Structure formats: C-alpha cells, structure tokens
Amino acid sequence: MVKILVRWLLLAAALLLVAHLYSGVSVTSFTSAMIAALVLGLLNALLRPLLVLLTLPVTVLTLGLFLFVINALMFYFAASLLPGLAVTSFGAALIGSLIYSLCGMVIDAALERLFKS
Asked: What is the pTM of this model?
C-alpha cells in the first residue's frame, strides 16, 4: 500500500516536472497534479487496453509507434476532463505524454529497487 501511495505522489510530482519543462502543458497546483495522476492512471488501466486492441492493425503496421498516439490521446483526454491540467494542442499532449512516460519508467525502476519484496 505504501508503494502505491509513494508512486502516486511521485507521478504527481512528475506531472509538475512536465509542466515546468514544457510550456505546452500546465498544472495549477500539486493537488491538481495528484488528481490528474489518478485520472491518468485510471484511464490507462481502463480505456487504454481497449484502444490498443481496437487499433492493433495500425499499431502493427507502424511497428508500435501508434502506441505513442494512444498515450497522447489519454493525456489529452485527461486534460479535457480536469480543470487543473491544461494541454495546448495534440502535439503538446504527445510531447507531454512522452516526458511523463519517461518519468514514470524512472519512478517504477527506483521503486522496484526501494521496495524489493
């Protein structure tokens, strides 16, 4: 349970980092970042598998590069749902989702080393 809470807080901090590094994404507060990280996690857990399955032919044709578009769609959709997260365009969502995904990979690797079971 502690690992999940730490991951959630670090992903919220990663959203703030994305907003700081890239001007196309803005987050109003840490509370908004926490809510956005939760919504992004729920969207990625519930909606993303369905989109991946439906777009499987395109994903295979593009050798997996279309998954970046799906990630950007999730990021853009979360920004449209939440008033505390703003994305200026689809291109900004693509770049923001790339930076956020890289941060998530670093966070997951660090937490695996920290919380060895």
From this structure: 0.91
